[in-house]
Design a protein that fits this description.
By secondary structure, the protein is α/β, with parallel strands linked by helices. It is about 40% helix and about 20% strand. The protein contains 18 helices and 19 strands. The strands form three sheets. Strands 1, 2, 3, 4, 5, 16, 17, 18 and 19 form a nine-stranded mixed β-sheet that branches. Strand 7, helix 5 and strand 8 form a beta-alpha-beta unit. The radius of gyration is 22 Å and the shape is globular. The two termini are about 30 Å apart. The N terminus is likely disordered. The site of zinc ion (ZN) has 5 residues, from loops.
């Protein structure tokens, strides 16, 4: 490790001690461990702590918001949420001028593509899909490892405690293994959707035997239950082409057969056939099905999604960036469809945080409907927390702050100059909030970010390694630009 980073970590640890608050021993231990190991050190222990005197947004309808509230966490679980909680012996995390809420839940992110962040260029052949397919030919498991680690760390940094890592860069088993290892190392909660690879023909089936291998061996990959497996399905129709029925049917039945949830893109291409209706008519929708984009969903299709209890992962930033258009987000939400938010592909979207996503969606919907009140910040925060957890089938353990759930929470400081006042917390978070305001991040009871610093990650080393991997990939692929 470079000495400057070591010094920064040491002085940061000293800073925590000097404040006299919020220095659970686990944090200091994790920082020490990070200094000893690689870019991502050992995960801290879970321990016991209580957040005191914060503005707590539980996102639980019965508990609501609690001004001056406490959250007591022990051994990874939320013990109690309320005022003036008794928690003898628990380390105290001061919540003054902090908004505490459930960790944000991201629901559709091709994390392998984080290595090519903002590499979708200005010419047709450099556009997202041709560029990633061309670059993908030179991709190694090590590249995927760097990309997934960087993405997962960026997620934590910005208050995302759950990601849906949907991989479509899986030409060999090692690629899946390395993505799963990276998620486990970083300690984030996740769904890993096993999809296709960039080189797989539309007529060829997904590598079901390898998915079965991973599924059988799941205890090895799940990081103690933090990660669950899903299928990244291509569906019946993609990019103007139909997948052969014997292929899509077998893949769907396979996933249902082993009981894993299914995700598919309904591409945002204008004037495409009614893809959602097509899947509904073939009985391919359901509570275990997550649709990404749904950019051109019709009123009938929205009803179909609602009736089948399917969820939609909205991608407002990519939809606009790539020119898909504007998804009928309000029509879906008002129609009773469970909606949530996604990063999608960093190659085109660049920044991977949900603050940007939330603000963008609210403004888009208000603009589209000519109303200041069309999509309220409070609702979009639900999309980014509890509704996301529902879409991923993990609402029993994440997405809201309620006793008995796993402790995935974030503390957002209002002290930053981009905030500086405490007004309406929902408006403040969505309109003014930035990743830099995320002071503390807890996943499954582990404190992974504290006082603005990641506890088990040497971020300088991580980005040095990732940048080197991208430069090498670019060279290897002989990328002309
Ligand atoms: Zn996608």
């Amino acid at each position: 490790m470079k000495s400057i980073t070591r010094r920064a970590l040491i002085s940061h640890a000293a800073g925590i001690a000097a404040t006299g608050i919020a220095a659970p021993p686990v944090v200091a231990a994790a920082m020490k461990a990070a200094r000893r190991s690689g870019a991502v050190g050992a995960l801290p222990e879970r321990g016991e702590f209580v957040v005191r005197g914060a503005y707590v947004m539980t996102m639980d309808p019965a508990l609501g918001d609690i001004a001056g509230g406490d959250v007591h966490v022990k051994d990874g679980a939320i013990v109690a949420v309320g005022k003036a909680l008794k928690a003898p012996g628990a380390a105290v995390l001061g919540g003054e001028r902090m908004i505490v809420l459930p960790g944000l839940v991201e629901t559709h992110w091709h994390m392998w593509a984080t290595l090519a962040r903002s590499f979708s260029g200005d010419r047709r052949e450099e556009a997202n899909f041709p560029m990633m397919a061309a670059l993908g030919k030179f991709w190694t498991p090590a590249d995927t490892h760097q990309a997934t680690r960087l993405g997962a760390v960026e997620a934590l940094q910005s208050g995302i405690t759950t990601v849906h890592n949907w991989s479509h860069m899986l030409p060999a088993p090692e690629f899946a293994d390395t993505e799963l290892r990276a998620l486990a190392d970083v300690g984030i909660r996740a769904r890993f959707s096993y999809g296709w690879s960039q080189s797989l023909a539309e007529t060829e089936p997904l590598p079901l035997a390898d998915i079965e291998r991973v599924h059988k061996d799941w205890a090895k990959f799940s990081n103690g239950g933090l990660i669950h497996l899903g299928l990244g399905w291509r569906g019946m129709w993609r990019f103007g082409k139909f997948t052969p029925p014997e292929v899509y049917r077998r893949e769907f039945d396979f996933a249902r057969g082993i009981g894993i949830p299914i995700s598919l893109h309904v591409p945002g291409v204008r004037n495409s056939p009614k893809v959602i209706e097509m899947h509904g008519n073939a009985n391919f929708l359901g509570k275990d099905v997550l649709i990404a984009h749904a950019t051109w969903a019709t009123a009938d299709e929205i009803k179909m999604l609602k009736d089948t209890d399917s969820s939609v992962s909205l991608s407002p930033v990519t939809d606009a960036r790539i020119g898909y258009g504007f998804a009928p987000a309000s029509e879906l939400i008002d129609g009773g469809v469970n909606c949530c938010l996604s990063i999608d592909t960093p190659a085109a979207t660049g920044a991977c945080n949900l603050f940007e996503n939330m603000k963008y969606l609210v403004n888009l919907e208000n603009g589209r409907f000519g109303s200041e009140f069309k999509l309220l910040p409070r609702k979009v925060l639900e999309l980014a927390t509890i509704d996301g957890a529902r879409a991923l089938g993990i609402a029993d353990r994440a997405g809201s702050l309620r006793p008995g759930k796993r402790a995935d929470l974030i503390m957002v400081s209002t002290r930053g100059v981009n905030m500086g006042v405490f007004t309406d917390p929902a408006h403040l978070l969505v309109e003014a909030g930035q990743p830099a305001n995320v002071d503390t991040v807890v996943v499954d009871g582990r404190i992974l970010k504290r006082q603005g610093k990641l506890t088990h990650v040497d971020a300088d080393r991580l980005t040095d390694e990732t940048a080197a991997a991208f430069d090498a990939l670019r060279k290897r692929s002989n990328w002309r630009a």
